[in-house]
Amino acid sequence: MPSPLHILIVGSDSRLRDEYVAALGTSLESPPVVHYVADFRQAVEAARSHRPALAIAQMASDLTPLRAFADELSAASPETRLVGAFKPEIFAHEVSESAVLIEALRAGVSDFLRRPISAVDVNLLLERLSRQIPTTPGRLGKVVAFMSNKGGVGKSTLAVNAAVGLALRHPGHVLLVDASLQMGTCAAMLDIRPDMSLTDAAREHARLDEMLLRQLAIPHVSGLHLLAAPADAVEGSEVSEETVSRVLSLARRTYDYVIVDTFPFFDRVVMAMLDQTDQVYVVLENVVPTVLGMEKFLKLLQSVGYPIEKQRVVVNRFSRRNGSLPLADASDRLNRNIDLVVPYDQGMVTAANLGRPFISGWHPLSRAARSLQKLVLDVEQRGAPTSGHSLKVQSTDRAATNSEFAQDVELVENVSQP
Fold first, then answer.
1. Which end of the chain, N or C, is more open, meaning fewer C-beta atoms within 10 Å of its C-beta?
2. Whole-angstrom Cα distance, residue 17 to residue 161?
3. 208, 53, 206: which is closest to 196 by C-alpha?
4. How confident is the model at residue 79 (pLDDT cuts 50, 70, 90)?
5. b or e along 318-337 (b: 16 or more beta carbons within 10 Å of the residue's beta carbon)?
6. The domain 142-414 belongs to what CATH superfamily?
7. pTM here?
Protein backbone atom coordinates (compact mmCIF):
# COMPACT_ATOMS: atom_id res chain seq x y z
CA MET A 1 0.00 0.00 0.00
CA PRO A 2 1.50 3.40 -0.96
CA SER A 3 2.61 5.70 1.82
CA PRO A 4 0.15 8.53 2.41
CA LEU A 5 1.00 11.97 1.12
CA HIS A 6 1.78 14.46 3.90
CA ILE A 7 0.48 17.97 3.26
CA LEU A 8 1.19 21.02 5.39
CA ILE A 9 -1.41 23.79 5.20
CA VAL A 10 -0.23 27.17 6.52
CA GLY A 11 -2.48 30.15 7.09
CA SER A 12 -4.88 31.91 9.41
CA ASP A 13 -7.85 30.99 7.20
CA SER A 14 -8.85 27.47 8.29
CA ARG A 15 -11.09 27.16 5.19
CA LEU A 16 -7.94 26.71 3.10
CA ARG A 17 -7.50 23.21 4.52
CA ASP A 18 -11.11 22.27 3.81
CA GLU A 19 -10.86 23.58 0.26
CA TYR A 20 -7.77 21.53 -0.46
CA VAL A 21 -9.07 18.27 1.04
CA ALA A 22 -12.37 18.64 -0.81
CA ALA A 23 -10.59 19.35 -4.11
CA LEU A 24 -8.24 16.41 -3.58
CA GLY A 25 -11.19 14.02 -3.33
CA THR A 26 -10.32 10.44 -4.23
CA SER A 27 -7.52 11.20 -6.67
CA LEU A 28 -5.01 9.35 -4.47
CA GLU A 29 -5.02 5.68 -3.50
CA SER A 30 -4.21 6.62 0.10
CA PRO A 31 -5.93 9.58 1.76
CA PRO A 32 -3.51 12.42 2.51
CA VAL A 33 -2.31 13.25 6.00
CA VAL A 34 -3.03 16.95 6.37
CA HIS A 35 -1.29 19.05 9.01
CA TYR A 36 -2.66 22.52 9.64
CA VAL A 37 -0.87 25.39 11.41
CA ALA A 38 -1.92 29.01 11.66
CA ASP A 39 1.43 30.81 11.26
CA PHE A 40 4.81 30.47 9.60
CA ARG A 41 6.77 29.97 12.81
CA GLN A 42 4.74 26.88 13.71
CA ALA A 43 5.00 25.73 10.10
CA VAL A 44 8.82 25.50 10.20
CA GLU A 45 8.75 23.14 13.18
CA ALA A 46 5.89 21.12 11.64
CA ALA A 47 7.85 20.75 8.40
CA ARG A 48 10.92 19.58 10.30
CA SER A 49 8.83 16.99 12.16
CA HIS A 50 6.63 15.66 9.34
CA ARG A 51 8.72 16.26 6.18
CA PRO A 52 5.64 16.97 4.02
CA ALA A 53 5.74 16.63 0.24
CA LEU A 54 3.80 19.87 -0.07
CA ALA A 55 3.49 23.01 2.02
CA ILE A 56 0.53 25.09 0.86
CA ALA A 57 0.83 28.59 2.27
CA GLN A 58 -1.80 31.29 2.31
CA MET A 59 -0.55 34.31 0.31
CA ALA A 60 -1.08 37.95 1.17
CA SER A 61 -0.24 41.14 -0.70
CA ASP A 62 2.90 41.56 1.39
CA LEU A 63 5.27 38.74 0.42
CA THR A 64 7.92 39.49 3.05
CA PRO A 65 6.74 36.87 5.61
CA LEU A 66 6.33 34.29 2.85
CA ARG A 67 9.87 34.95 1.60
CA ALA A 68 11.30 34.43 5.08
CA PHE A 69 9.28 31.22 5.47
CA ALA A 70 10.53 29.91 2.13
CA ASP A 71 14.13 30.34 3.30
CA GLU A 72 13.53 28.62 6.62
CA LEU A 73 11.52 25.82 5.01
CA SER A 74 14.37 25.03 2.62
CA ALA A 75 16.63 24.54 5.65
CA ALA A 76 14.16 22.63 7.81
CA SER A 77 12.78 20.32 5.09
CA PRO A 78 14.61 20.71 1.76
CA GLU A 79 12.43 18.12 0.03
CA THR A 80 9.18 20.03 0.70
CA ARG A 81 7.68 21.88 -2.26
CA LEU A 82 6.20 25.27 -1.38
CA VAL A 83 2.91 26.20 -3.05
CA GLY A 84 1.21 29.57 -2.70
CA ALA A 85 -2.58 29.70 -2.39
CA PHE A 86 -4.08 33.08 -3.24
CA LYS A 87 -7.38 34.85 -3.73
CA PRO A 88 -7.40 37.22 -6.74
CA GLU A 89 -8.79 40.03 -4.60
CA ILE A 90 -5.51 40.34 -2.65
CA PHE A 91 -4.05 42.13 -5.67
CA ALA A 92 -4.74 45.85 -5.87
CA HIS A 93 -6.22 47.19 -9.12
CA GLU A 94 -3.00 48.95 -10.06
CA VAL A 95 -0.88 45.83 -9.36
CA SER A 96 -0.32 43.17 -12.00
CA GLU A 97 -1.16 39.67 -10.75
CA SER A 98 1.60 38.17 -12.88
CA ALA A 99 4.16 40.59 -11.45
CA VAL A 100 3.30 39.52 -7.89
CA LEU A 101 3.45 35.83 -8.83
CA ILE A 102 6.85 36.33 -10.44
CA GLU A 103 8.05 38.01 -7.26
CA ALA A 104 6.71 35.05 -5.27
CA LEU A 105 8.62 32.64 -7.53
CA ARG A 106 11.79 34.60 -6.84
CA ALA A 107 11.02 34.35 -3.13
CA GLY A 108 11.01 30.55 -3.29
CA VAL A 109 7.40 29.58 -4.11
CA SER A 110 7.48 26.81 -6.71
CA ASP A 111 3.78 26.63 -7.69
CA PHE A 112 0.40 28.27 -7.10
CA LEU A 113 -3.24 27.41 -6.41
CA ARG A 114 -5.98 29.92 -7.04
CA ARG A 115 -8.75 29.99 -4.44
CA PRO A 116 -11.30 28.60 -4.14
CA ILE A 117 -9.19 25.56 -4.97
CA SER A 118 -10.54 23.33 -7.74
CA ALA A 119 -10.07 19.59 -8.26
CA VAL A 120 -8.59 20.30 -11.71
CA ASP A 121 -5.88 22.55 -10.28
CA VAL A 122 -5.02 20.05 -7.53
CA ASN A 123 -4.71 17.16 -10.00
CA LEU A 124 -2.46 19.24 -12.24
CA LEU A 125 -0.34 20.17 -9.23
CA LEU A 126 0.04 16.55 -8.17
CA GLU A 127 0.89 15.57 -11.73
CA ARG A 128 3.65 18.18 -11.82
CA LEU A 129 4.86 16.97 -8.43
CA SER A 130 5.04 13.36 -9.63
CA ARG A 131 7.25 14.44 -12.52
CA GLN A 132 9.61 16.26 -10.21
CA ILE A 133 12.98 14.57 -9.95
CA PRO A 134 13.49 13.32 -6.38
CA THR A 135 16.29 15.05 -4.56
CA THR A 136 18.27 13.97 -1.55
CA PRO A 137 17.74 16.28 1.42
CA GLY A 138 20.74 18.47 2.12
CA ARG A 139 23.09 17.66 4.93
CA LEU A 140 22.06 19.82 7.86
CA GLY A 141 24.19 20.63 10.87
CA LYS A 142 22.99 20.24 14.43
CA VAL A 143 22.10 23.02 16.85
CA VAL A 144 23.16 22.48 20.47
CA ALA A 145 22.28 24.98 23.21
CA PHE A 146 23.66 25.53 26.70
CA MET A 147 21.03 26.79 29.13
CA SER A 148 20.63 27.44 32.83
CA ASN A 149 18.08 28.79 35.25
CA LYS A 150 20.54 31.39 36.62
CA GLY A 151 23.76 33.15 35.80
CA GLY A 152 27.13 32.45 37.39
CA VAL A 153 27.13 28.65 37.05
CA GLY A 154 29.70 28.55 34.24
CA LYS A 155 27.27 27.93 31.40
CA SER A 156 29.14 30.21 29.01
CA THR A 157 32.46 28.65 30.00
CA LEU A 158 31.15 25.21 29.06
CA ALA A 159 29.64 26.49 25.81
CA VAL A 160 32.91 28.14 24.77
CA ASN A 161 35.06 25.15 25.70
CA ALA A 162 32.70 22.70 24.00
CA ALA A 163 32.69 24.84 20.85
CA VAL A 164 36.49 25.18 20.81
CA GLY A 165 36.92 21.46 21.47
CA LEU A 166 34.66 20.65 18.51
CA ALA A 167 36.43 23.21 16.30
CA LEU A 168 39.81 21.65 17.05
CA ARG A 169 38.36 18.39 15.70
CA HIS A 170 36.34 20.01 12.87
CA PRO A 171 38.05 23.33 11.99
CA GLY A 172 35.86 25.71 10.01
CA HIS A 173 32.72 23.66 10.60
CA VAL A 174 31.66 24.92 14.04
CA LEU A 175 29.80 28.15 14.80
CA LEU A 176 29.35 29.54 18.32
CA VAL A 177 26.35 31.87 18.59
CA ASP A 178 26.39 34.09 21.66
CA ALA A 179 22.64 34.56 22.13
CA SER A 180 23.05 36.00 25.61
CA LEU A 181 21.65 39.28 24.33
CA GLN A 182 21.97 41.26 27.55
CA MET A 183 25.54 40.49 28.54
CA GLY A 184 27.31 38.08 26.23
CA THR A 185 30.77 36.99 27.34
CA CYS A 186 31.90 34.50 24.68
CA ALA A 187 34.02 37.03 22.79
CA ALA A 188 35.94 37.96 25.94
CA MET A 189 36.54 34.29 26.77
CA LEU A 190 38.03 33.87 23.29
CA ASP A 191 40.04 37.13 23.49
CA ILE A 192 38.12 38.50 20.51
CA ARG A 193 37.06 42.12 20.07
CA PRO A 194 34.14 41.81 17.67
CA ASP A 195 33.15 44.56 15.27
CA MET A 196 30.10 42.59 14.09
CA SER A 197 27.42 40.78 16.04
CA LEU A 198 23.88 39.39 16.11
CA THR A 199 22.68 42.99 15.89
CA ASP A 200 24.12 43.22 12.38
CA ALA A 201 22.25 40.04 11.48
CA ALA A 202 19.04 41.67 12.71
CA ARG A 203 19.71 44.86 10.76
CA GLU A 204 20.48 42.87 7.59
CA HIS A 205 17.56 40.46 8.06
CA ALA A 206 16.16 41.02 4.56
CA ARG A 207 19.38 40.00 2.80
CA LEU A 208 20.79 37.59 5.36
CA ASP A 209 22.00 34.39 3.70
CA GLU A 210 24.72 31.76 4.23
CA MET A 211 27.44 33.94 2.71
CA LEU A 212 26.55 36.98 4.82
CA LEU A 213 26.33 34.83 7.94
CA ARG A 214 29.90 33.64 7.38
CA GLN A 215 30.98 37.26 6.90
CA LEU A 216 29.41 38.24 10.22
CA ALA A 217 31.09 35.34 12.05
CA ILE A 218 34.56 36.06 13.44
CA PRO A 219 37.22 33.34 13.07
CA HIS A 220 39.20 32.11 16.08
CA VAL A 221 42.64 30.52 16.01
CA SER A 222 41.10 27.16 17.03
CA GLY A 223 39.10 26.98 13.80
CA LEU A 224 35.92 28.13 15.54
CA HIS A 225 33.68 30.87 14.13
CA LEU A 226 31.90 33.21 16.55
CA LEU A 227 28.70 35.18 15.97
CA ALA A 228 29.07 37.58 18.88
CA ALA A 229 26.41 38.93 21.20
CA PRO A 230 25.21 42.53 20.84
CA ALA A 231 27.45 45.16 22.38
CA ASP A 232 24.89 46.05 25.06
CA ALA A 233 21.27 45.57 26.11
CA VAL A 234 20.10 48.43 23.89
CA GLU A 235 21.50 46.73 20.78
CA GLY A 236 20.22 43.42 22.11
CA SER A 237 16.65 44.74 21.96
CA GLU A 238 16.97 44.84 18.16
CA VAL A 239 17.36 41.07 17.99
CA SER A 240 13.93 39.45 17.66
CA GLU A 241 12.78 35.86 17.71
CA GLU A 242 12.53 36.04 13.89
CA THR A 243 16.21 37.01 13.71
CA VAL A 244 17.29 34.14 15.97
CA SER A 245 15.19 31.63 14.03
CA ARG A 246 16.58 32.81 10.70
CA VAL A 247 20.18 32.83 11.94
CA LEU A 248 19.95 29.28 13.27
CA SER A 249 18.18 28.02 10.13
CA LEU A 250 20.98 29.42 7.98
CA ALA A 251 23.68 28.32 10.41
CA ARG A 252 22.67 24.66 10.30
CA ARG A 253 22.92 24.83 6.50
CA THR A 254 26.38 26.41 6.72
CA TYR A 255 28.07 24.60 9.64
CA ASP A 256 28.13 21.03 10.91
CA TYR A 257 27.79 22.12 14.55
CA VAL A 258 26.09 25.24 15.89
CA ILE A 259 26.66 25.87 19.61
CA VAL A 260 24.36 28.43 21.23
CA ASP A 261 25.05 30.18 24.52
CA THR A 262 21.83 31.57 25.99
CA PHE A 263 20.73 34.13 28.55
CA PRO A 264 19.13 32.69 31.73
CA PHE A 265 15.74 34.18 30.97
CA PHE A 266 12.81 32.43 29.30
CA ASP A 267 11.30 34.70 26.66
CA ARG A 268 10.15 34.61 23.03
CA VAL A 269 13.74 34.70 21.73
CA VAL A 270 14.63 31.64 23.80
CA MET A 271 11.46 29.90 22.61
CA ALA A 272 12.45 30.57 18.98
CA MET A 273 15.90 29.17 19.73
CA LEU A 274 14.41 26.02 21.27
CA ASP A 275 12.33 25.48 18.13
CA GLN A 276 15.58 25.10 16.19
CA THR A 277 17.60 23.20 18.81
CA ASP A 278 18.42 19.50 18.55
CA GLN A 279 20.00 19.12 22.00
CA VAL A 280 20.05 21.18 25.19
CA TYR A 281 22.67 20.96 27.93
CA VAL A 282 21.21 22.38 31.14
CA VAL A 283 23.96 23.54 33.49
CA LEU A 284 23.87 23.83 37.27
CA GLU A 285 26.13 23.69 40.32
CA ASN A 286 25.62 21.28 43.22
CA VAL A 287 24.33 24.06 45.47
CA VAL A 288 20.89 23.76 47.02
CA PRO A 289 19.32 27.04 45.72
CA THR A 290 20.58 26.33 42.20
CA VAL A 291 19.26 22.76 42.25
CA LEU A 292 15.85 23.96 43.48
CA GLY A 293 15.73 26.53 40.69
CA MET A 294 16.80 23.94 38.12
CA GLU A 295 13.96 21.67 39.24
CA LYS A 296 11.51 24.41 38.21
CA PHE A 297 13.43 25.09 35.02
CA LEU A 298 13.26 21.46 33.88
CA LYS A 299 9.51 21.46 34.54
CA LEU A 300 9.25 24.61 32.43
CA LEU A 301 11.06 22.90 29.54
CA GLN A 302 8.60 20.04 29.86
CA SER A 303 5.62 22.39 29.92
CA VAL A 304 6.62 24.02 26.62
CA GLY A 305 6.96 20.59 25.01
CA TYR A 306 10.74 20.30 24.73
CA PRO A 307 11.43 16.53 24.82
CA ILE A 308 13.29 15.12 27.80
CA GLU A 309 15.34 12.88 25.50
CA LYS A 310 16.88 16.03 24.01
CA GLN A 311 18.02 17.28 27.42
CA ARG A 312 21.35 16.59 29.16
CA VAL A 313 22.00 17.63 32.77
CA VAL A 314 25.51 18.90 33.52
CA VAL A 315 26.84 19.62 37.00
CA ASN A 316 29.60 22.19 36.61
CA ARG A 317 32.27 23.21 39.15
CA PHE A 318 31.55 20.08 41.13
CA SER A 319 33.07 20.12 44.60
CA ARG A 320 32.65 18.22 47.86
CA ARG A 321 33.73 21.19 49.91
CA ASN A 322 31.68 23.60 52.00
CA GLY A 323 28.74 21.25 52.41
CA SER A 324 27.93 21.10 48.69
CA LEU A 325 25.03 18.87 47.70
CA PRO A 326 26.02 15.26 46.83
CA LEU A 327 25.33 14.18 43.27
CA ALA A 328 22.85 11.52 44.36
CA ASP A 329 20.81 14.10 46.30
CA ALA A 330 20.81 16.50 43.36
CA SER A 331 19.70 13.72 41.03
CA ASP A 332 16.90 12.68 43.38
CA ARG A 333 15.67 16.25 43.71
CA LEU A 334 15.65 16.75 39.94
CA ASN A 335 14.32 13.24 39.27
CA ARG A 336 16.91 13.07 36.50
CA ASN A 337 20.22 11.39 35.79
CA ILE A 338 23.24 13.62 36.17
CA ASP A 339 24.61 13.05 32.69
CA LEU A 340 27.94 14.88 32.92
CA VAL A 341 30.08 16.32 35.71
CA VAL A 342 32.85 18.90 35.35
CA PRO A 343 34.93 19.28 38.55
CA TYR A 344 35.94 22.67 39.90
CA ASP A 345 39.32 23.78 38.61
CA GLN A 346 40.90 27.16 39.34
CA GLY A 347 42.68 26.85 36.01
CA MET A 348 39.37 27.18 34.18
CA VAL A 349 38.71 30.50 35.92
CA THR A 350 42.17 31.74 35.01
CA ALA A 351 41.76 30.62 31.40
CA ALA A 352 38.43 32.48 31.11
CA ASN A 353 40.01 35.65 32.50
CA LEU A 354 42.88 35.42 30.00
CA GLY A 355 40.66 34.65 27.02
CA ARG A 356 42.37 31.30 26.45
CA PRO A 357 39.89 28.40 26.43
CA PHE A 358 40.94 25.81 28.97
CA ILE A 359 40.33 22.91 26.61
CA SER A 360 42.87 24.18 24.08
CA GLY A 361 45.76 23.82 26.57
CA TRP A 362 47.46 20.67 27.77
CA HIS A 363 46.51 19.75 31.33
CA PRO A 364 47.70 16.17 31.91
CA LEU A 365 46.71 16.11 35.59
CA SER A 366 43.41 17.93 35.29
CA ARG A 367 40.22 15.95 35.70
CA ALA A 368 38.32 19.05 34.60
CA ALA A 369 40.11 18.94 31.24
CA ARG A 370 39.22 15.28 30.83
CA SER A 371 35.62 16.03 31.73
CA LEU A 372 35.51 18.78 29.10
CA GLN A 373 36.78 16.29 26.54
CA LYS A 374 33.93 13.96 27.54
CA LEU A 375 31.53 16.86 27.04
CA VAL A 376 32.93 17.52 23.56
CA LEU A 377 32.57 13.86 22.58
CA ASP A 378 29.03 13.82 23.97
CA VAL A 379 28.07 16.86 21.90
CA GLU A 380 29.81 15.43 18.84
CA GLN A 381 28.02 12.08 19.04
CA ARG A 382 24.59 13.40 19.94
CA GLY A 383 24.78 16.32 17.57
CA ALA A 384 26.44 14.56 14.62
CA PRO A 385 25.07 15.99 11.34
CA THR A 386 24.20 12.62 9.82
CA SER A 387 21.05 11.53 8.06
CA GLY A 388 21.43 7.86 9.03
CA HIS A 389 21.54 6.61 12.58
CA SER A 390 20.99 8.54 15.76
CA LEU A 391 22.67 7.62 18.98
CA LYS A 392 20.39 5.45 21.08
CA VAL A 393 20.40 6.55 24.68
CA GLN A 394 20.08 3.66 27.07
CA SER A 395 18.20 4.37 30.28
CA THR A 396 20.26 3.71 33.37
CA ASP A 397 19.74 3.64 37.07
CA ARG A 398 20.39 7.11 38.50
CA ALA A 399 22.37 5.80 41.44
CA ALA A 400 24.67 3.79 39.17
CA THR A 401 25.17 6.77 36.84
CA ASN A 402 25.92 9.15 39.68
CA SER A 403 28.29 6.63 41.26
CA GLU A 404 30.26 6.47 38.03
CA PHE A 405 30.72 10.23 37.94
CA ALA A 406 31.46 10.37 41.65
CA GLN A 407 34.37 7.98 41.10
CA ASP A 408 35.57 10.10 38.23
CA VAL A 409 35.80 13.25 40.34
CA GLU A 410 36.52 11.67 43.72
CA LEU A 411 40.11 12.84 44.06
CA VAL A 412 39.83 16.15 42.23
CA GLU A 413 40.46 18.28 45.32
CA ASN A 414 43.73 16.45 45.99
CA VAL A 415 45.08 16.77 42.46
CA SER A 416 47.59 19.55 41.91
CA GLN A 417 46.47 21.58 38.92
CA PRO A 418 49.05 22.95 36.51
1. N
2. 48
3. 208
4. confident
5. bbbeeebbebeebbeebebb
6. P-loop containing nucleotide triphosphate hydrolases (3.40.50.300)
7. 0.66
